């Protein structure tokens, strides 16, 4: 039987995207975690992780094994949560509005984990870019991109990502590499947005900021499709560093105009201030903050 602690540590390494960060989060020496994972691989007789000096990635069997380890982690947390919420059960209907551009496979996996952890919850998840009324339409939580307009709603920062400009080597060979933001006007762009989104990217930070226009080749509201179209040589795109870090490491995508860093984009969980923060809202936002990054990382390692 595989060592349970080794399985939990393996899941922690995958969520943290590396041994060093897992060691910091777990409060254990990196060497201890590395040794435990090596022992686990030896016990199983398979390699779970591919390691190099810059990053780790899951093997095919490692990705399958991780799902089981993550389920075990959820069960351990559920056991603790049972005690923590004995007098305030997490249960009932939770209605959530999420932007269409979110990776729906990541959200589906996250929601499945949440419902396994809190079986008394009934979820109603709607992917929409419309302005939903939290009170009038009965939503408990809306996931929104910042900046937010001022209102009587309460906003909790869930995470932020660093956007970067990228393109494929083949596209750059055919069309050239932009040296300045003004050069983008001569390039095809893949726009993540809606019908109201203009072909303009805000580049730079603080006082050194400019609005760069480009020739829109594709406009979609899916970050997965944006990355696919960029990899298939259709133009330049803005993606978060977490979404395309493996492609950059392998040379499939090339970062551009790095001397013009883009302001991080922020994602908030918004709920009504007209009533006290319900326990099920609080625990979902806690869960989302903790798990979204690990689910996003898992998918990127499996692609």
UniProtKB/TrEMBL annotation:
MF GO annotations: DNA-binding transcription factor activity; sequence-specific DNA binding
Superkingdom of origin: Bacteria
Xref: PROSITE patterns: HTH_LYSR
Keyword annotations: DNA-binding, Transcription, Transcription regulation
SUPFAM superfamilies, per the entry: Periplasmic binding protein-like II, Winged helix' DNA-binding domain
Domain HTH lysR-type: 2-59
Any one GO biological process: DNA-templated transcription
Entry's family note: Belongs to the LysR transcriptional regulatory family.
Protein name: LysR family transcriptional regulator
Species of origin: Shewanella mangrovi
């Amino acid at each position: 039987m595989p060592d349970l602690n080794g399985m939990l540590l393996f899941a922690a390494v995958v969520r943290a995207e590396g041994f060093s960060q897992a060691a910091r989060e777990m409060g254990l020496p990196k060497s201890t975690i590395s040794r435990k994972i090596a022992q686990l691989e030896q016990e199983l007789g398979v390699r779970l992780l591919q390691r190099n000096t810059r990053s780790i990635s899951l093997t095919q069997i490692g990705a399958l094994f991780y799902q089981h380890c993550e389920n075990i982690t959820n069960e351990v947390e559920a056991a603790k949560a049972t005690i923590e919420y004995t007098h305030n059960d997490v249960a009932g209907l939770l209605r959530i509005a999420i932007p269409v551009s979110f990776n729906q496979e990541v959200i589906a996996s996250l929601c499945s984990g949440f419902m396994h952890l809190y079986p008394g919850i009934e979820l109603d998840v709607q992917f929409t870019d419309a302005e939903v009324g939290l009170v009038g339409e009965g939503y408990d939580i809306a996931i929104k991109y910042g900046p937010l307009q001022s209102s009587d709603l309460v906003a909790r920062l869930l995470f932020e990502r660093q956007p970067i400009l990228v393109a494929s080597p083949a596209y750059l060979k055919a069309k050239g590499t932009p040296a300045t933001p003004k050069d983008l006007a001569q390039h095809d762009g893949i726009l993540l947005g809606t019908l109201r989104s203009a072909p303009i990217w805000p580049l730079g930070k603080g006082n050194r900021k400019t609005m760069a226009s480009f020739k829109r080749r594709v406009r979609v509201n899916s970050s997965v499709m944006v990355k696919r179209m960029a990899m298939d040589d259709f133009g330049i795109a803005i993606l978060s560093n977490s979404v395309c870090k493996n492609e950059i490491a392998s040379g499939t995508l090339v970062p551009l105009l790095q001397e013009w860093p883009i302001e991080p984009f922020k994602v908030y969980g918004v709920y009504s201030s007209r009533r006290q923060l319900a326990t099920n809202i609080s625990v979902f936002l806690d869960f989302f903050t903790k798990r979204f990054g690990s689910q996003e990382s898992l998918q990127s390692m499996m692609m």
